[in-house]
Amino acid sequence: MTLAQQRPGPIIVGIGEALFDRIAGKGDHLGGAPLNFAVHAKQMLAGESLAGGRSVLVSRVGRDALGDRLLAALRAFGVETDAIQTDLDRATGIVDVSIGESGPSYLFREDPAWDNVVFTDRLEELSYAFDAVCFGTLARRRPATASAIERFVRNGTDRDTVRLYDVNLRPGATEYEVVRRGLELASIAKMNDEELPVIAEMFGASAKDEIGQAATIIRAFGLQQLMLTRGARGVIVYTPDSVYEGEASKATISASSDAVGAGDSCGAAYAVRLLSGDSPFTAATVANKVGAYVASHSGATPSLPAHLTRERPSVDLVTARRRVVDI
User: Fold this and answer.
1) If phi over 0 gives left and psi between -120 and 50 gives alpha, with beta otherwise, what is residue 231?
2) Which of 9, 34, 196, 294 could pair with 16 in a Cys bridge, judged by C-beta atoms 3.0 to 4.6 Å apart?
3) pLDDT tens digits for 198-235?
4) Quick one: CA torsion of 78, 156, 159, 6, rounded to 10 degrees?
5) What 3-state class would DSSP assign to 91?
6) Are 119 and 108 in contact (CB under 8 A)?
7) What are the residue ranges of helices labelled H in 7-54?
C-alpha cells in the first residue's frame, strides 16, 4: 500500500533547511523556512477539517546534540521526521540572527548538514504522495541538494498539488538561475514586498508598481498565484485575473517579540486553508492573523492558540479585486 492510499488526510511537506536560529540575547530557536512551514502547517491541520493530515520535514541534521534536540522538538509538534537525514561529517545548522530597526538579518554558518540533502528511496515515495510542498532558494545553492529538491518537487507537477516557492532571498542565494528554476517549478510563488521588485527586475519587468510587477512574474512563469507578504499591511494574493487582499491583523510588539518566521507561518496557514477549500481572500485573512501572532512572539515556531487554528472569518468577501491581465 502506498502513502497516498493509506493516508487519512493531506500530506504537507517542507523541504530544505532545518536549523537553529541563534537570536542575539534570546537563545536558540527552531528555524529554517521549510521547517517553520512544516511546524505551522501541522498546527493549522490540527484545527481544521483536515485534522488527519500529516506534516513531514525533509532535511538533514548532524549527529550531534543540536540535531537530537531539533528532532525531538519537531516530534513534539507532531511533525514527521523519518525523511530527515543524518550527516556524520557535518554539524546541525545554526544561523546567527540580529534584530534591527528594519527587521531580522541572518548570518549562516559554513557547510551545515542541511546543505547536503540527497535523494533517497524515502524521498521518491514521498514525492509521489504529497499534496503541498514548500521549498525555497537557500537550500538550492549547491548542485547536489538543488537536484534532490527539484526532483522531489517536479514529481508533484503532474498532480493537482500546491508547490509553494518561498523565495526568501538571502546573501549568497540570489542566483538568477536558482530563482528562475524555482519559479518554473512553483504553482504559487511567495515573496515579500522588498523581494518583489528585485525578482521582477530579474525577469524584465518595466512596471514600477506592485501589481504590474506581480503580473509580469505570473505571466512569465504561468503561476496560479503570487502571494506577497507586506508586514503590517498584510498578505495580498495575485492571480492571473484577480487580486485578493486579506484583512490585515496587528502584531503586538514587545521587548520579547522579533518577527522571525512570521512570513513562513503565513505561508503555512495559507496553504492549509487553500487545501481546506477556502478562497484566497479567506486564506489570506487567516494567514495574516497567524503571521501577526508569530510576529508578536520570540522565535519562529511558537505554539499557536486553538482559536487561530480554528479561525473562520465571518464574511468571505473579496475586499480588493482587479483584473491583472488588463494592466
Assistant:
1) left
2) 34
3) 999 998 878 889 999 999 999 999 999 999 999 889 99
4) -40
5) coil
6) no
7) 33-46
Q: Is the pTM of this model over 0.85?
A: yes
Whether residue 165 contacts residue 138, with contact meaning beta carbons closer than 8 Å, is answered with: no
End-to-end CA distance of the chain: 49
- The side-by-side arrangement of strands in the sheet containing 162-166 is 84-87, 54-62, 11-15, 132-136, 162-166, 188-192, 225-229, 235-238, 243-245
Dihedral angle of Cα 286, 287, 289, 291, to the nearest 10 degrees: 170
Cell 533517497 appears where? 120
Q: Which three cell numbers stand for residue 162?
A: 500546491
Q: How many whole angstroms separate alpha carbon 104 and alpha carbon 101?
A: 8
Q: What is the pLDDT of residues 154-207, one digit of tens each?
A: 999 999 999 999 998 876 667 889 999 999 999 999 999 999 999 999 988 788
CA distances from 183 to 40, 192, 306 (A): 23, 15, 34
Alpha carbons within 13 A on the beta-carbon side of 129: 23
Percent of the chain with pLDDT over 90: 68
Q: What pLDDT score does 313 carry?
A: 62
